[in-house]
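Hello forum,

I keep getting stuck at the same step: I have a sequence, I want structure tokens, and every attempt I make locally crashes halfway through. Rather than fight my setup again tonight, could one of you with a working pipeline run this one for me? It's a single chain of 131 residues.
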Amino acid sequence: MTTILTVIHILVSLLLIGVVLIQRGQGADMGVSFGGGGAQTLFGSRGSGSFLGKITGGLAATFMVTSLSLAFFSQQHGVSVADKAATMPAQQEQPAAPAAAPAGGFDPSQLGGTAPAAPASAPADGLPAAE
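Reply #2:
Ran it on my machine without issues. Output:
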């Protein structure tokens, strides 16, 4: 059932794109006022606007119905993420995490070595001395 609905949904979407592209824009009637175009009697005396508008509405309604139907059927066969997590086998043990950093942040005393002493000519703030 889902396969048939998917095929219908794709066909309707392609037809809807085609019908929308065929329609004239809002400014298309401007050329008629200056003598361009002719009596468009192929779709009736009112032109193609009414006919293509009805087809567009029908295709749009069909597109919405197939979209809702596909959503409904996919929900019926689907399993929630919580249910999947509950039924999954236990994960293998993960390697131990490295030791957590102290609450105060970086602790240089844990580096193992001593920090090099600052040169005697440099001031305590680390900036070069003003001359």
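Residues 48-77 form one domain. If your local run keeps crashing, start a new thread with the error log.
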